[in-house]
Automatic annotation (TrEMBL):
<feature type="domain" description="Ribosome recycling factor">
    <location>
        <begin position="2"/>
        <end position="145"/>
    </location>
</feature>
<dbReference type="InterPro" id="IPR023584">
    <property type="entry name" value="Ribosome_recyc_fac_dom"/>
</dbReference>
<dbReference type="Pfam" id="PF01765">
    <property type="entry name" value="RRF"/>
</dbReference>
<protein>
    <submittedName>
        <fullName>Ribosome recycling factor</fullName>
    </submittedName>
</protein>
<feature type="region of interest" description="Disordered">
    <location>
        <begin position="100"/>
        <end position="123"/>
    </location>
</feature>
<keyword id="KW-0963">Cytoplasm</keyword>
<dbReference type="InterPro" id="IPR002661">
    <property type="entry name" value="Ribosome_recyc_fac"/>
</dbReference>
<feature type="compositionally biased region" description="Basic and acidic residues">
    <location>
        <begin position="100"/>
        <end position="110"/>
    </location>
</feature>
<dbReference type="GO" id="GO:0043023">
    <property type="term" value="F:ribosomal large subunit binding"/>
</dbReference>
<dbReference type="GO" id="GO:0006412">
    <property type="term" value="P:translation"/>
</dbReference>
<comment type="similarity">
    <text>Belongs to the RRF family.</text>
</comment>
<dbReference type="GO" id="GO:0005737">
    <property type="term" value="C:cytoplasm"/>
</dbReference>
<dbReference type="InterPro" id="IPR036191">
    <property type="entry name" value="RRF_sf"/>
</dbReference>
<keyword id="KW-0648">Protein biosynthesis</keyword>
Length: 147
């Protein structure tokens, strides 16, 4: 969407001048609605410096996405870990809010044992979801680092 092309006098995203499909994980296929747009779209892609080289067969433009470099894979793993940490913080905040709600309810008349049970269940849920998050993170890291 960031690649703009001159379409009959106005700058529009490529998706505004062509059908953009993804036949597989490593290929983007661009089929202009007007064949005269093949060259301008190809030029816009080259000028955009997105690191992809268009292949024009006279009907469509095919972009083949190169495999990730080791450096880029490490950057993606860092980003995934950061997102996971944000999720962990959200889980802990939810636990804190629940514990505060139980304490408030206890002051308003909830029996102490029910309040403690609620806090215990909240802690168990936190541990369950943290483990699920860690499992998903490990799987995603492995997926990213697999060549």
């Amino acid at each position: 969407n960031g690649v703009m092309v001159d379409y009959f006098g106005s700058q529009v995203p490529v998706s505004g001048a062509a059908s953009v499909t993804v036949p597989d994980a490593k290929t983007i296929l661009i089929q202009p609605w007007d064949k005269k747009m093949l060259r301008p779209i190809e030029k816009a892609i080259l000028d955009s410096n997105i690191g992809l080289t268009p292949s024009n067969n006279g009907e469509t433009i095919r972009l083949t996405i190169p495999p990730l470099t080791e450096e880029r894979r490490k950057e993606l793993v860092k980003q995934v870990r950061s997102e996971a940490e944000t999720a962990r913080i959200s889980l802990r905040n939810a636990r804190r809010d629940a514990v505060e709600a139980f304490k408030k309810a206890q002051k308003e008349g909830m029996p102490e044992d029910e309040s403690k049970d609620g806090e215990t269940q909240t802690q168990k849920l936190l541990e369950k979801f943290t483990k699920t998050l860690d499992d998903i993170l490990a799987k995603k890291e492995k997926e990213i680092m697999t060549v």
